[in-house]
Every structure is written in C-alpha cells, then in structure tokens.
Amino acid sequence: MRQAVGLYLTIARGAFRRYSTYRMATFSGAVTNSVFAVILAATFLALWRARPGLGGYDARAAVTYIWVSQALLVSVAAWGGGFQDELQTRFRSGDIAVDLYRPVDFQGWWLATDLGRAGFQLLVRGGVPLAVGALWFGARLPRSPLTWPLFLLSALLAVVVSFGVRFLVSLSGFWLHDAEGLRALTGVASMFLSGMLLPLTLFPAGAGAVARALPWAAIVQLPCDVFLERRHGLAVLGELGFQLGWALVLFGLGRVGLRLATRKVVVQGG
Amino acid sequence: MELIELDRVSRTFTVRSKAGRLRRRRHEVRAVDGLSFTVRAGECVGYIGPNGAGKSTTIKMLTGILVPSAGRLRVAGVDPARERVALARRIGVVFGQRTTLWWDLPLRDSYELARRLYRIEPARYAANLERCVELLQLGDLLDTPVRQLSLGQRMRGDLGAALLHDPQVLYLDEPTIGLDVLSKARVREFLREVNAAGTTVLLTTHDLTDIEQLCGRVMVIDHGRLVFDGDLAGLHAAGRSERTLVVDLARPGPPIEAPGARVVKVAGARQWLAFPAEQSAAPIVAAVADRYPLQDLSVREPVIEDVIARMYAGAVGG
Ligand SMILES: Nc1ncnc2c1ncn2[C@@H]1O[C@H](COP(=O)(O)OP(=O)(O)OP(=O)(O)O)[C@@H](O)[C@H]1O
Ligand SMILES: [Mg+2]
C-alpha cells in the first residue's frame, strides 16, 4: 500500500515537473486565460446590469464565477486535453506498447499523470486569472476560511470526474484509427454542459435540470458554486458527494472499458 | 535451466483491407507460425530475420503484451500474458525505436520512477545505479533532460533503465539502430558485461556485427518460422555467405583473376571480388597485389538479408 502511494506520487510529481518545464507556453496560456476572462466579465456585467439576479447570481457573484471557471478551465481540462493529448500521440506512434508492459495499472498511471498536470496548471493558469480578476474587477471571495479547502477538494474531484470522461473517450483509440472527431465532439459538449460558458442555472428549466444531473456539472459548475458558498452546511457535502459519485462511476466504467480494450489489443492485435 | 520455452507458438493478425467502395476484405497475417525454441539461463542469443519476419511479435509475446493464437509459451516458468505484471518485474525490455524515459525530465527522474515501479530496495538501487553510470558513462547525463540527449546517449539511458531492477532476461529489439560506430561499440561492450554477469539476453538486430561480437548462438526467423538455429560460423556455412573484397587498381583493366574469388562487379578502376566468408582474405589480397597495380582495398562483411536470401534459395533449390 505504502509502495503504491509512493509510486503514484512519483508519477504525479513527474507530470507536475514535466509541465513546469514549458515556461513560455504556460506564461502565454495564463495571459490568454486572463484576457479571455476580462472580455467575458465585461459581457457578463452588461448582462447582469440589464437583468439583475439572473440565474440566482448577483453581478459580483457572476463575475467571480468567471474568474473561478477560467481558473479551472485548463486544470480540469473542460474541453479535453491533458493526458488525453499525450495518450493520443502514443496511440499514433505505437508507444502505447511501452505503457502496456510497465508493471503498473494503466488507468492509475494516467490518473496520477493527469492529477500532477492539473496541480501545476491550477497553480499557474488558475492563480493568474483569479488574481487579475479579483484585483481589477473585484470578486466575491469566500467568507468562511473553511471554503478554501472545500473548494480545493471540489476542484480535485472535478479533475477526477473530467479524467473519467476523457479516459472513456481515449479508450476509443484502441478501436478507432482517428479518435480526433469524437474528442472534439465531447469537448464541445463538455464546454456547454459543465457550465463553462454559462452557469447551468441560466439554461431553460428542463435542460438545466438534466445538465445539473450529468457528470459535466461536477467539472466546473459545482466547484464554482462551492467557491461562491451557494450552499451551506451539509448541502456542501451533498455537492461533494455528487462529484465523488460520478468520479467513482466513471472510473468503474473506465475500468471495464480498459479491460475490453486491452483484451482486444492483446488477443486480437491492434 | 530453460528460461524461455516456446512450443509451436503461432500468432495471427486479422487485417482488414478495402476491397471496392464499401466492401472490406478480411485476411489473416501469420506473423509467427509454429515457432519452437528454448533459451537457457545465461545465454546470449541473436534473433535475426528480414523485415516483417515476426521478431518484434515474438518479443511482444515474450513480454506478455500479446497473447499467442496457439501454442505454449513460458518465461521463467510463467505464462507471460497471464502474469504480465509479475513477470515485468523480472524482465527488462528495450525497444530501440521507443523510449521508456520521461522526455522532458532529467534522466535521474526516470530512474527514480523505475525504482518505484520495480520496487527496488534502496541499497540495491544505489549499487545498480552506480554500476550503470560507470559502465554506460552516464555521469554527465543524469541531470540532463532526456530530450536533449543524442540518440546514442538516450539509448544508453534506456539500457540503464531496463537493468536497474536486475532482470533475469533482457529483450533487446534493435538496440543499435541508428547509432554511430562508437556508440554501437559502447552498447555492445555494456551488453557483454551484462551477459557475463549472468543476465540472459535475447537480441534482435539487423547488424551482423552485433551478433558476431556478442552472441554465441543465432536464430534466424523468416515468415514466422525458425529457419536456422546454431552458431555464427554455421550460419555463414548454411547461407554460403560471402565477403566482398573491394579493390582499387591504378587504372581500369580486365576482370581480376584470383584463386578462390570471383569478380561480381567492375566499375572503372574499381572491382568487387566475392569469396566464401569463412575463408581468409590474405591469400587473395596477396595474389592481387602480386599481379595487378593495386592502390587500395577494403573488405566488406556479409549483410543478414543476403545470407538469409541465399540460405533460402539454397534450401528451395536443393
Ligand atoms: N498489430 C498488428 N496488426 C496486424 N499485423 C501485424 C501487427 N503487428 C505485426 N503485424 C504483421 O506481422 C508481421 C511480423 O511483424 P513484426 O513486427 O513481428 O516483424 P519484425 O520481424 O519485427 O520486422 P522488422 O525487422 O521490420 O522490425 C508483419 O507482416 C506485420 O505486418
Ligand atoms: Mg521489429
């Protein structure tokens, strides 16, 4: 058990450090994030001036929603990416064979890799837009100090849920020569359904209710709401429980899918 | 002790190809076809054959990432596909065209990962790392990001990564591909040491010199079947291998006549003379130097593809 924890920590730390070697890409990414956030914030402010209280957020909460969701965007890979890109190139080059003979669980390897990446990107690509937004436009920061650790936990679960979705999409690489189309499609769906473009409370009633029950809601909407302290007491645990539930379900599905996929490769040849 | 045992192992792949607009034809490729051999602990075996012969497929089955379609396979007493993870801790694999190292990080980090992956005890890790650093001359490279290493340096790094956990068997799939003469020599020197220390080595290569310098035994596979199993001299005899003497004369002239050799090509003042590989070049060189205006000469070793082609032609032709 201790050995396994040590192994996965080493993998995650490796991924964290690998991403930190791309300084220029990280810097320009953080700038892009911030610029994007500022444009969105200006739009949201105009919208909320016309319709105060829209979707249950006041104007200040609405712009904060933008800082937080932009801070999460890359870290939770709301439109795909992260380990998914790496895995895709490994399918194409055949390096996937190397991954398969390592004495480590394939799914665990990539989850640890993605968590390491997400950790780095939350720090840099998350911290910068959040700071820029809060200083320039102001933000509704958490009142209770307990909210910060809860938010981090929620962000962690968001990455795991997002990993679950992306892992299932990636597995198609075992069957399809070109998984790019499926990936783009799920990326767009994820942008909408996660609440990345608009809070899900702004969706028409029926569609909104459906979207709030789907796993994507756990990726952006929920951590934002935790940050904004929209629920109190045990209700917060309900939100985290919702994320944890989807994380487990998707991880389990990924496991089944992986078994089928490796069986196919190992037994039939890819 | 038999470390590797194959008993009539076959592996087929189903390939779909387009036949017309909508129809797709399925057909079977027999990558490995009824292969049987054994390798004893401590041997160093060259595993050669032309492109597409089934070498990499065999190695993939030996690591457990590919299941045989038929036949029985054992490595260190276990069925690789069934006990892939347990076996992985006892074998080392190097694919010349791929890397197990973390591209963006210093070599040291990948070794640290190997320590965790293979659960190597600290003392053993320290000792093995020291040995690899010394033998592979990795000292200056440990703190260099892998993407900044040259091909030869990276290959040495990969060899180190495959050996930190003291594997019983080392599979090498073209470890010298793309390396210059000096790097090849270093890799061979290292492999010789590894084998001398008791590790069983199965080496796939297209370079006969690798085999010559490392392997007491060579197996040739073609179309998934074993067509030769013996020592290198036996291979040359079976393939009626020929070496080539390239002779530069002072001026163009008629084909050279020398006992035991025949001219296979003439281009201006340069002539190519073929002679049996097991025969010494000295008497031929002496005869040529004696009777012709010799300026320069060199000897070329046979290439695997020619040896196999001739061996095959010999078998078919009678
Ligand atoms: N996954 C696969 N699907 C379909 N056919 C395959 C697959 N892997 C290998 N083959 C086929 O099996 C045969 C043997 O391939 P293999 O890679 O084992 O050859 P090799 O001896 O390693 O050749 P090389 O010297 O070129 O590396 C080839 O005809 C190849 O096309
Ligand atoms: Mg090969």
TrEMBL record, chain A:
Keywords, sorted A to Z: Membrane, Transmembrane, Transmembrane helix
Organism: Streptomyces tateyamensis
Protein name per UniProt: ABC transporter permease
Pfam family, one: ABC2_membrane_6
Keyword set includes Cytoplasm: no
Transmembrane segments: 27-50, 62-82, 118-138, 150-176, 182-202, 234-254
Keyword NADP listed: no
From TrEMBL, chain B:
GO cellular component: plasma membrane
Entries under SMART domains matching the protein: AAA
Pfam families the record matches: ABC_tran
BP GO terms, sorted: response to antibiotic
Record membrane topology: Peripheral membrane protein
Domain of life: Bacteria
Keywords: Antibiotic resistance, ATP-binding, Nucleotide-binding, Transport
Sequence ranges assigned to domain ABC transporter in this UniProt record: 4-248
InterPro entries: AAA+_ATPase (IPR003593), ABC_transporter-like_ATP-bd (IPR003439), ABC_transporter_ATP-binding (IPR050763), P-loop_NTPase (IPR027417)
Main location: membrane
SUPFAM superfamilies: P-loop containing nucleoside triphosphate hydrolases
Compartments reported by the entry: Cell membrane
GO molecular function, one term: ATP binding
Protein name: Methionine ABC transporter ATP-binding protein
Organism of this sequence: Streptomyces tateyamensis
